[in-house]
Amino acid sequence: MDKRPTINDVARISGVSKRTVSRVINGATNVGVATREKIQKVIDDLGFSPDKQARGLAASRSYLLGLIYDNPDALYIDQVQRGVLSVCSERGYELVVHPCNYDTENFIDNCVHFVKRSNIDGVIILPPVSESKKLAAALRDRNINYVRMASVDLDDHANIVVSDDRAALSDLARYLVSLGHRDIGIISGPKHYYSAIERLEGFCHTLKELGVDVAENRIIEGKNTYESGIECARSLLIQSPPPQVIFANNDEMAAGVLKVAHEMGVAVPESLSVAGFDDNLLATRVIPSLTTVQRPVVAMAALAAKKIIALIEHYQTEHQDTYLVKPHLIIRESTRKAQK
């Protein structure tokens, strides 16, 4: 046809109402499979794509999602954005990002102002910002749709995606003990973050169950940055004797451990095993490659995007009750059996 196809054309050719076509476009689940497939074929044949401005005006929505974060790990943020954008591209939404400073007194007002100023329909919040109960309450009080990504079950399941870090760190502890390691050093994340608490407690609790106690001087608090990994690794490796293993709260800090070990002439994994958490791109690009816990960040972010769109568009989806994701252990070159 000569003119640009419209939703009316799709509805007429499909033999359904405009509302049904709209449901298919928006990913609602209350349309039969056969009807959905028929409508999608017409959409594909016509080359139809919704006009975002008209669509937004008709629905009193902007079709913008927000992403709020305060996280120094650029690789993690990149994975989150890729996961969210994979859903946005299917559903006709755009993404607006907003870095904030979680440790300032006015960060809640700052986040709420961002939502209002940007006219977004809903927001996805990353840790550690997502751990703020006061921010979640402020958003609820203003009827702002939100979904939190976190390491603890802090909210209604329609509003949260949880990484079961505690269980994953239990698996790592069992693996390291199976290699014969008993003297273990830990670089934790900031101890006021739920994620750092969950990982530290999950790791240490399982070690204790297995008869391994971690000495107080073997636990050093890091800042989840490469630089703090370097600083903390030095503090551990100058101890006499140094630990057999260092677990770092994320891969950024674990990479810092590898750097310090190299500088000090400590062979990894022959004299020191090193493990991290996240399994971002860095884990396979350092030497030796890093044993780590893989958190499926892209999949978690995509799930969060599906949840927020379901809240915005007021429809039921199979994703609303799905909230818990378990990371899993990836064994690489940076760990080996303890020397006797």
TrEMBL record:
- InterPro entries with a match to the protein in the record: HTH_LacI (IPR000843), LacI/GalR-like_sensor (IPR046335), Lambda_DNA-bd_dom_sf (IPR010982), Peripla_BP_I (IPR028082)
Q: Which Pfam family name is an example for this entry? A: Peripla_BP_3
SUPFAM superfamilies associated with the record: lambda repressor-like DNA-binding domains, Periplasmic binding protein-like I
| Top-level taxonomic group | Bacteria
Instruction: Tell me one GO molecular function of this protein.
Output: DNA-binding transcription factor activity
| Glycosyltransferase in keyword set | no
Domain HTH lacI-type: residue ranges:
5-59
Keyword vocabulary terms for this entry: DNA-binding, Transcription, Transcription regulation
Task: Output the SMART domains linked to this UniProt entry.
Answer: HTH_LACI
Q: Which PANTHER family match?
A: LACI-RELATED TRANSCRIPTIONAL REPRESSOR, LACTOSE OPERON REPRESSOR
Would you tell me the protein name for this molecule? LacI family DNA-binding transcriptional regulator
User: What is the species listed in this Swiss-Prot or TrEMBL entry?
Assistant: Alteromonas pelagimontana
